[in-house]
Structure formats: C-alpha cells, structure tokens
Design goal:
It is built from 28 helices and 29 strands. By secondary structure, the protein is an alpha/beta fold. The strands form 7 sheets. The protein has an 8-stranded mixed β-sheet with strand order 7-6-8-9-10-14-15-16, sandwiched between helices. Strands 23, 24, 25, 26, 27 and 28 form a 6-stranded mixed β-sheet that branches. A 5-stranded parallel β-sheet has the order 2-1-3-4-5. The longest helix has 30 residues.
C-alpha cells in the first residue's frame, strides 16, 4: 500500500484549532450543567394557555441569561390538560412516570391544581400552582403543593375595610359554586365580624348557569339584601361579567346599590365599552402590582414573541397578576434548583425545601412563601368609571385604606363613582344590613302590677285589636330603632308570666319564642350567659329608702359649725396681721404701745382681738393706723353679723335626718324591710344575711309609702330596698318624709335583650349611646318622670349653708389691701421721721404737747437733754397729774399738782 503525504499550510492548521475550540466549549459547558426536569401543565388550546406557556419559557430564559454560570439547567416539559381536571391528572402522571420530572408547574385552574397536587404528593413531586387561590380540601393529601399565589382569604380584610369605611355593616356574597369560590366565605364572615358587620346572605352560582338561572340568583340575592343593597362578587372573569350584565338588566346596578368584586374577575382580556358601561361604579379589590419598567419590559417582549410565534395573536397591555405569578413561579423553580444543586436523580423533598426557602424580587414584588403560600400582598382599590378602571386607594394590613401607596396612615379613598353615576357625595346610605333579614321581630314585654311608668300594658285595644303598650322603656327602644342604619319591623307582645320573676321572660329568647325583650329587665351576670344585653340606658346600682325625722343640731363644738375651717384660719390670720401692723406704726409715737417685749407682744393680740367686740381702749396717734383700723372694724362688723345670723339659724331650724343609714343596723335590730316584687334584690338581701321572714314584697309606689309610714313595729317596714331608677321615681313623687340612705350597691342597670350572638345587640347599644349623648333621652325622662328638679332633695333640711373663705374673699381682699398699703406708706416715709418724734399732723399729739406745760411754775425737763428712761418716767408722771386734775375738785386739783411739782423738785 502506498502512503501519500499531504502537506497543510500553517493557516489551515490554525483554522482547525479554532474550530475544535468552538466545538469543544459547549460540550464542556453542557456536561457541567446538571439538568432539572420540570413539567408544565396548561390548557394549550386556549389563548391564556399559550400566553402562560410563553411566560414560563421566558422566565427560565431570563433567569439563565442573568445567571450564565449556573450549575443546573431547568428543562421544561409541557403537557396539555385539554381544559379539564381529568386531562390535568393524566398529564401529571405522564410527567412523573415517563418524563421523570422533579417538579410540576400548573395547571391553570384551581380545581385541576388540587387534583394534580394529590398526584404529586403521592409521588413526592412538588407542585407549584399559580392558580390555587383556595386551600386544598385535604391538606394532608397535598403536602407537596406550593401555592405561589395570594390566598383568596387575604382579600376578605380589605373588602371588610371598604365596607367599614363607608359605614356599611354587611353584604350579600355571590360566589362561584366551586372549591375556589367558597374559599373566601369563612374569611369574609370573620373579617366583617371584626368590623361589627356580617354576611347577611350568600348565593352560589354555577359557572355554566344560564341567563334565567342567573336572574333567579340575583333576585334571591336582592331579597336577602332587603334595604342593604351591598353585594360582593367572587367569581371568575367570564362568570362575573355575565352576572353584572344580568344585574343591570334587573335594575340592580342603579343608584343606591353597591357592588364590590374581588381579583377573580380581573382577566387578561381588556374590558370592552359594553363591559365598562355595565360595570360602571363597581369597586374592584385586587393585589397591587407596581407598573415599573421591569413589568412593562416583560409585557412588551411577551407581545412581540407571541406575534412572532402566532401570527395575529392579540396583544395585552397590562398582564394580569396570574400571568406575573406564573413568571415568578418558573423563576423560583430555577432559583431553587440552583441553590440546592438539584439533579434528575435527587429526591423531591430537597427541591420542595429549596423552593419554600426561596426569596427574590419578582415581577409582583417580594417573592416569599409563608406556610406554603405567597405572603399577603398590598391590595389596590379600583373604581370602574366611564373612562375605564382607575385606582382610588390602597390597602395594607398595617395602614388600612389610604388614597396613595406612600401614605403611612389610613385616610380613606379618593373620589369614587357609584352605580347610577353617583359621586362620592352620593354614597349609598341605605347600604346597611338588617340582621333579621327584614323579618318582623317579636318583642316580648313584661306585664307589671306597679311602676307602670317603665312598662305599661293596658287593656285599651287599639284599632289593630292589640293591647296598648307604653312606658319609658318602650319609648327608649322605639327611639333607638329609629336611628339604626337599617329599617327594623317589630311587634310588641305582652308576657303575663313575669310578675314573680323576670327570669321566665328572659328564657323566651333561648327557647326562640321571642326575638327580643324590652322592659325594666336588670342586667345580671347569670342572664348574660344565656342572652345578649345592650348597654344600660338607666342609672345602675341599688340602695334603700328610709323615713326621715327632724333633729336639732347639737354638739360640744357646735359653735364652730357656721364657718368652715378655711374661714376660721383666715379670720385668725387677719386678726393677728392687723394687730401687728398697728403695733409697727404706733409703738414709736404712742407710749401705750410700749413696754417690755412681753407687754408689746400682748398688746398686739389684745388690741387685735378686742376689736371683735369693739372694746379697744388704746388711743391711736397715727392717721395711717386710724384709717387701717376703720376698714378692719367694718370687716369685723360683717363677720360677726354673719356668724351670729348663721348660728341662730342652725339653732332654730330643724334638720331632716334619715332614721337609719346602714343595712347592718337593720339586721341588728331585726327590723322588717321591703323590696319590689319579682326583683333580684330579694336574693341580694338574703346574701346580706337578712332574715327571709323579715322581708316583705310590694308592687307599687303607694305601697312603698304606706309601709314606710307605718314603720317596722306597726306592720310596715323600716326601709325599702330597690334599684336606683325605681327609688328616684318614688322620691320624685314623695318629696316629704323620705330619703335615699346608705351605700349604693353595684348593679348594671336596665338593658334590652337579644338572643345570644345577635348582631343587633351591638347596633342597639350604639343607638342607646347616641340617645344618651343627645337631648332625646332627657326628653323621654321628663315625659314619664317629670322635671328632675321639681322635688327638692331630702335629707339635708333647710338649714343655713356653712360659710367658707370664698364667701368673704372680697372683704378680706379689701382689708388686706388697706392694711398693706398703710404699712408700705409708713415704711417708705419712715426715714423722714425722727427717732421719737410724733406725727405733726396728729391732733392728739398737738393737744398733749400743749398740756405738757405744768401750771404754777412746775418745771418741764427739756427732751433734748433727757435720757430715754427719764423721758418715759416724766411722761408717766405728767399723765398721772393730768388724771388727778381731771378727777379731783378744782381747788384740790391745783394743790395736788403743786405737791407733785414740789416732789419732783425735791
């Protein structure tokens, strides 16, 4: 064999090396990336299925474009479900057995997703569903189900907040007759109870229902709503739009109606002009997706790819949230596979755990799974107007409803257009549910033998042939019913078995023989276990009424009673202050205010308190002190006159005092006591250790008065125990001779009664509170009990009131100002005066200066040369001479003066 040698050029050699490098590179990369097989089940015969198929592919491609060095590579295996659950189950089994997938995405309907989840759980293959908005019927059979979508129950809270914000207390729920349709029922009921509302009715609608069937369903819902025309629709887009069309034909989309729809009606197809006209005014509550550049870019690329792959395929401007969930689901699978290093040989548990731990920023926001489902999103509130849907508010669990997404506090929504083209100013006011669904209530009232001002059942039949039922309790109930946010029809029915005890009439509610009880029924803890009370509409507590007797005020220190302690202390303070100021002004110019320190201290108190009886003898030298004392004497005159009058009144006027003030005294003395027939007070008295043989029951105020007037020793009672409203009424009609005494024992007052769990109890409580805050309750009380001030309060008599400092504050102000002013003027002018010089303006000083010359040649010592002690002694001697001269006969007086003069000379 002949070998031939071929010579290659250097350029050809380098060309072969380049080709080998290009061929060898993908081979190396392909062997490094571990394949992860993921099945996708969709209805590929529908436009929605085709869009979802392209969406999933784009998500996987976008992930690996963003992460080119991934160690894993997701391989998508698509199967067609043919639009039914059986086809979805078959596709799932094929993917698990033949394709040996490690996870399944889909299918696109909630019902099919639950069946596929059961198949996947048995094979330990995770099923990631972007459509399973309702929890599975049997969670244990769907352990490998991961719901990458928001639960329908999340929408219940924002829907309830919308109702609360506009004052609507409940609604009728229309939902699809399926597992997905009922997913919101329980959550909506709980959410409405949290805002004091309720689901007043619900109607299930089959997806394939005919128009006639839809009309019947709507008429049934309208009957449930009665005056409360608020409807919540939770149904797929096609069914929801058919419901709205039939509702408009039936006249249910007119002014006064409210329609709220969940995100289930938010489909892919753009609303047509007819759809917007039909749905104008409805409120749509759906998960909020921020329309950022990332979402807009995805929508643009999706439309371009669909047009490329399917000629003439319609574009979508705003991708529905379900399509964005599908994109994030595929991205999550690729992320989890990469994080776990998953391959075809690994188990499904490891991939399931990796998916549950996956967190990233997706198209719908933060992708985070909580308890196997997507965390609760922010919701947007959309109003369908003539120009199309517009966002009017946002809702979060933290802030509630806000007008924009950046608000931190709930401030309600923006302007809303309601059905019938009513603006926000025309918010439907009749949208409040009747908890009794429009049924006439049977209201039981007790038949009483006394105190008929509270409840009176008369035999005077009206035109309808029914007894005439009136009274304070009845009027309060009627007034409360009028201000409820919904109309209530009711009929009063007398109950004759309540004279002995009200427990029998209360038991009518658990026995379902009545819908409410109206009357003077006391709220007790035992009864609250069986029925629902409203808030009290009367005074609470119970006490006793006893006779009063006239007594004169006595006591060792009774003389102190006319003045309060504050006035006594103030008066003593001003007495001492006045004496001190007089001493300050007078002691330098007036010898009568001089002496030893103890003498001067005594003069201050003696002079001040002597003015109380105008017995002061000291002559005043200064005009300052004279003016001040004149003002003080005027104040003393008023004080003493007022004190004398008040003390005289207390000594001559008799005070009315209760005969007994303590229940224990009644027990100790063994007195008879009374109570109202049928009242719970009898049981309370027994618990207080009253002898049952000493207890007597009465029915009317007249019997109360007669028993108290007789007294315990003469066949009557020493005290009547009853609830405060009854005692107040008794005293208002018996002004003389009785009073309420002793402590007020705890009690809850009167309340209206409804069956346990009734929604009307809280509504009526709010109505009663509104009446109490206004004038209506006072008007009703005056109608039945008269003017509260018509009868003077008993027990304190008509004695004079005790005087306080405030009664004389003006007088003390004048006195204090005058005294302070004189003291201030004296202190200011003090430096201008000599140490011992008298006031030149004082007429007394001038007179005594003239009298200082001793007659008959008596020498007067000059003051300038005399010591202080000599001067005082000279003055005292001179004063004695003057007194002797004034008291002795004329001749003898001259002789005495001369003798004293000679004595001084000697």
């Amino acid at each position: 064999m002949e070998w031939r040698y071929v010579t290659f050029s250097p350029c050809f050699f380098f060309f072969l090396l380049h080709v080998a490098a290009l061929v060898g590179q993908p081979a190396v990369a392909g062997t490094a990336a571990a394949p992860v097989r993921v099945g996708v089940i969709l209805n590929l015969a529908s436009a929605t299925g085709l869009r979802l198929q392209t969406t999933v592919r784009m998500a996987v491609e976008d992930y690996y474009a963003a992460h080119p060095n991934s160690a894993t590579r997701v391989e998508l295996h698509f199967r067609d479900s043919h639009g039914d659950a059986v086809g979805a189950i078959s596709a799932a089994e094929d993917l698990i057995k033949n394709a040996q997938v490690g996870a399944i995405i889909g299918p696109q309907t909630p019902a099919a997703a639950e069946f596929v989840a059961t198949v996947g759980s048995r094979a330990h293959v995770p099923v990631l569903s972007f459509s399973a908005t309702a929890p599975p019927l049997s969670p244990s059979d769907a352990r490998f189900l991961v719901r990458t979508c928001a639960d329908d129950s999340f929408a219940a809270a924002p829907v309830a907040d919308v109702l609360r914000s506009f004052g609507w207390r409940g609604a009728v729920l229309l939902h699809e007759d399926s597992r997905a349709g009922t997913g919101i029922v329980a959550a909506l009921a709980d959410a409405l109870r949290g805002v004091a509302g309720s689901v007043v009715g619900r109607v299930a609608v089959r997806a394939d229902a005919s128009d006639d069937r839809l009309d019947a369903v709507l008429y049934r819902a309208m009957a449930m709503a009665a005056a409360a025309r608020v409807f919540v629709v939770h149904a797929p887009p096609a069914l929801a739009r058919r419901l709205f069309r039939r509702a408009k034909v039936a006249g249910m989309m007119s002014r006064g109606s409210v329609w709220i729809a969940t995100s289930a009606i938010d489909g892919e197809d753009k609303l047509t002009t007819d759809d917007m006209d039909t749905m104008q005014g409805i409120i749509l509550v759906r998960p909020h997706v921020q329309a950022n550049a990332k979402v807009m870019n995805f929508a643009s690329r999706l439309n371009a790819r669909l047009r490329q792959e399917n000629a003439g395929f319609p574009d979508i401007h705003d991708p529905p949230v379900s399509m964005l969930w599908a994109y994030d689901t595929a991205w999550a699978v690729a992320t989890a596979a990469e994080a776990d290093g998953h391959s075809v040989s690994a188990t499904g548990e490891t991939l399931l755990k990796a998916v549950l731990d996956t967190t990233f920023d997706g198209l719908t926001g933060k992708f985070k799974l909580v308890d196997g489902k997507l965390q609760a999103p922010t919701y947007e509130i959309v109003n369908v107007a003539a120009e199309g849907p517009k966002i009017v508010g946002f809702w979060t669990g933290k802030t509630g409803i806000t007008p924009d997404s950046d608000s931190n506090t709930g401030n309600g929504t923006n302007k809303i257009v309601w059905p019938g083209r009513a603006s926000l100013a025309g918010v439907p006011k009749a949208a409040a549910p009747s908890p009794n669904n429009g049924k006439e209530l049977v209201v039981a009232v007790p038949v009483k033998h006394g105190f008929n001002q509270f409840v009176d059942v008369s035999n005077d039949s009206t035109i309808t042939g029914r007894p005439r039922i009136t009274g304070y309790c009845v009027d309060v109930f009627d007034a409360a019913m009028k201000i409820l946010p919904y109309p209530v029809r009711y009929q009063y029915v007398p109950f004759n078995g309540s004279s002995k005890s009200y427990d029998q009439i209360v038991r009518l509610l658990p026995q379902k023989r009545a819908d409410a009880v109206v009357g003077d029924v006391t709220i007790t803890s035992i009864r609250m276990g069986e029925v629902e009370y409203t808030m009290s509409y009367t005074d609470s507590g119970w006490s006793m009424v006893v006779p009063v007797e006239a007594r004169l005020s006595t006591g060792m220190f009774f003389f102190l009673k006319p003045l309060k302690t504050s006035l006594w202390i103030s008066s003593l303070t001003f007495f001492v202050f006045t004496g001190f100021v007089v001493w300050v002004i007078e002691h330098r110019v007036n010898p009568e205010f001089r002496g030893t320190p103890w003498q001067q201290f005594g003069i201050i108190f003696y002079y001040a308190f002597s003015t109380l009886v105008f017995a002061q003898r000291e002559k005043l030298e200064s005009n300052f002190s004279r003016f001040m004392v004149i003002v003080w004497l005027f104040a003393v005159l008023i004080l003493t006159s007022t004190y004398t009058a008040s003390l005289t009144s207390m000594l001559t006027v008799q005070e009315l005092q209760p005969t007994v003030t303590d229940a224990s005294e009644l027990i100790r003395r063994g007195d008879y006591v009374g109570y109202q027939e049928g009242s719970f007070v009898a049981g309370e008295l027994k618990r207080m250790n009253f002898d049952e043989r000493k207890m007597r029951s009465y029915s009317t105020p007249e019997q109360y008065a007669e028993a108290l007037s007789k007294g315990s020793a003469n066949g009557g009672v020493a005290a009547i125990f009853d609830e405060i409203p009854y005692l107040k009424y008794f005293l208002s009609h018996n002004c003389k001779g009785y009073t309420m005494a002793g402590p007020v024992y705890d009690g809850a007052g009167f309340g209206f009664i409804f069956p346990k769990g009734s929604a009307m109890a809280s509504d009526v409580s709010r109505a009663v509170a509104s009446l109490t805050e206004g004038e209506e309750m006072a008007r009703i009380m005056r109608k039945w009990f008269g003017d509260p001030g018509a009868c003077d309060k008993q027990g304190s008599g008509v004695g004079s009131p005790i005087l306080s400092f405030w009664n004389f504050s003006g007088l003390f102000l004048i006195t204090g100002a005058a005294t302070g002013l004189m003291l201030a003027v004296y202190v200011v002018t003090f430096p201008c005066r000599g140490y011992d010089t008298k006031d030149a303006k004082s007429p007394t000083s001038s007179k005594r200066a003239d009298e200082g010359s001793v007659p008959n040649g008596a020498d007067a010592k000059p003051r300038s040369g005399a010591g202080k002690g000599d001067e005082v002694k000279a003055r005292m001697e001179q004063r004695e001479e003057e007194d002797d001269a004034a008291s002795a006969p004329e001749g003898k007086a001259s002789l005495n003066v001369l003798m004293k003069g000679d004595e001084r000379k000697g």
